[in-house]
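Much of what follows relies on a compact textual record of a protein's fold. A complete example follows; check for yourself that the lines match position by position.
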Amino acid sequence: MRSGDPDPQAGFTLLNELSESEIDWLLTEGETLFCEREMILVQESCRIEYLYLVLEGVFGVSVGGTQGKEIAKLGPGQIVGEMSFLEDRPASATVTALEGSRVICIPRAKLEAKLRLDTAFSAHLHRALGIVTSRRLREAVGQLGRWLESAPSAEPDVLARWERIARITQQFKEQIIDVGKTLDGNDSPDTSEVSVALQIFSQRIDEAIGDGSPENIDAREELGARIQRELLPYFAKARTPHQLFEKPRGYPGDFRAIEMIIEAKPGGTSPVGEMLDSAFLQLPTCTALREAPQLISAEFQENFGAKSTNALRVAAIGAAPAMELSAMISRPNGDFATSATAIEFDSEALLRMRAHPPCSEPIRLELETLVDLALGRHRVLAEPYDFAYALTLGGALSDRFFVGMLNYLHEMLKPGGWAAVGSFHTSNPDRAFLKHIIDWPLYHRTESDVDSLFRHSRFGSACNRFRFERQGVFFVALCEKG
């Protein structure tokens, strides 16, 4: 994984360190468990006999020390019980299903026996669990530091850098406050000043602590946490940043947050919050996401729009809200031209698409686990598709699992079929702001990066072409199945 990329979710960190045969062993020896809503998976202070990998649904994590207050949510791809497994101690928190959910349970006894017999597997697994716990410790320390009024490191160069970033942050805060004063009683306030200020601020933060800055990763984390401490109370009142930060579905950039960005209807819990939501929705990342569906539908029309056959098949992976399907499955004269399948890993997203379909034509809806999508494994019966695409899922997957997603798409396609995969470009000026202040880490790639991933996948070749939205922040890579 390249330096500066966001960390995968804990479960993916585990899988990333294991070989294909070791992953096969975990999934084969593990037992699938369905958890009804409010079922307790792990009870605080009780011994855990399993290591769990979340496949579907959402779990809440709570501890008695905070009177049962929920402190985190775990979604698809997350791991449960790793600290208890490593320390052989009772659970430190209670984990409860917030909706119908499914997990893989790996029995402790089987796992310990495997570790004794297979030294390579033991080394890989313990390294993976060590990385998971280390990252969670860093997150806890960072969260504590955000809310403590402590001084930055005493080194003169760190102090000087913080003073520069503090001035930039304070100037932006003052603009928020000044414009906020004009909102009361003003039916149509001019918020364009804050929108421009946020874009400038985001770019300056990327220059200061982004991947191209001279700072090391620890300094970026420290400085980013301090900026977040200053600004998060304001952005927490804005609807879309709040959704992205809170992760109510247990994973970053959930379907509802993407839907909010595409709809672009500002909201918030205060006039300042609504103003900041409006400014956030005008960031290059958000405007690029609104244009991204047009890249897919335009590519489909150019490839298949002139064909007379009515037998075309389209599949959307990680589909919700799948608004682009409306332009793809009906011809201009209204004749039904294609059949479409939407494959999602979030059951709530499928329920929403069923209740609010993206178009008037019928769409087949299928549920696939995020783990299977990332590993390139099909549970859903794959039809031979002419066009299969994943618009936003790639931004959440590390290189290894991006390749797994490509393999998943490859197996769905007919010979001569086309795959389209979306990616954020490394030129995105918002990446540091999104990661450090909003806590929305995204993978960013160049065209050559994506070419390399396609070569390492079952496609075995570079992309045929790329299609960018007008800012160059987001692009779609096209590749034909040879």
